[in-house]
Amino acid sequence: MELEKLSYTRTFGYPTERLTGGHFSVPVFIKHDAIQHLRPMTEDIFWAYCIFMLKKSTPLLPSFNMLVLRVLEAGINYAWETKVVLFHTNSRTQQIIRYHYYHGEDTETVSLQWMHVQGAFGILAFGYAIAFLCFLIEQVVHKYKTPT
User: Fold this and answer.
1) Which residues of 65-93 are buried (b: 16+ CB within 10 A; e: fewer)?
2) Could you tell me if 111 and 38 are in contact, meaning their C-beta atoms sit under 8 angstroms apart?
3) Do the beta carbons of residue 25 and residue 17 sit within 8 Å?
4) Which of 9, 40, 47, 59 is deepest in the core (most CB within 10 A)?
5) Residue 75: which region, alpha, beta or left (left: phi > 0; alpha: psi -120 to 50)?
6) Is 101 in contact with 18 (CB distance < 8 Å)?
7) Residue 97: its pLDDT value, please?
8) For this UniProt entry, which segments traverse the membrane (predicted)?
9) Residues in the chain with pLDDT < 50?
């Protein structure tokens, strides 16, 4: 109950787990309306693969590898993850966290200014200058090569 009250104060950090399917696991004390006022970190603190350890010479390794491959190809792990996440949290909570995770707080549009495109125009002008120089050289070479 105390952690739930603290989640509205913005004075502490709370852990979330970014799952492999793109969903987020949220602690039970973080409520839907508190998430709108909290901001997730932009980078992961820790990330690791889920690994299985088998004996090197086990005869079950090829069939186990095939099972894992089929589960991943069929998307069963993503379906399971979606069901579990939606059972424990609502979809609105997931949308809020996903929005803040991928967009952050700086989502205002910026008007296009000269400094945004000056490099591209500089390259374009340089290309035009080289093309014009090649054209002049061709004209001079053509003038002196052909008898008139």
Assistant:
1) eeeeeeeeeeeeebeebbeebeeebeeeb
2) no
3) yes
4) 40
5) left
6) yes
7) 78
8) 119-137
9) none
Domain ranges of the chain: 2-103, 111-148
Percent of the chain with pLDDT over 90: 27
8 Å CB contact between 25 and 16: yes
Instruction: Count CA atoms within 13 Å of residue 102 on its CB side.
Output: 9
Beta strands in the chain (DSSP E): 17-18, 24-25
Residue type at 9 in one-letter notation: T
CA atoms within 13 A on the CB side of 23: 20
Q: Residue 86 corresponds to which tokens in the numbers above?
A: 């939606």
**In this structure, which amino acid lies at residue 60?**
L
According to the 3-state scheme, what is the secondary structure of 29-69? CCCHHHHCCCCCCCCCCCCCCCCCCCCCCCCCHHHHHHHHH
pLDDT at 148: 61
138 DSSP assignment: H
Pull the structure tokens for residue 87. 């059972």
* Tokens of residue 13, six digits: 């950090």
The tokens of 85 are what? Answer: 């996440």
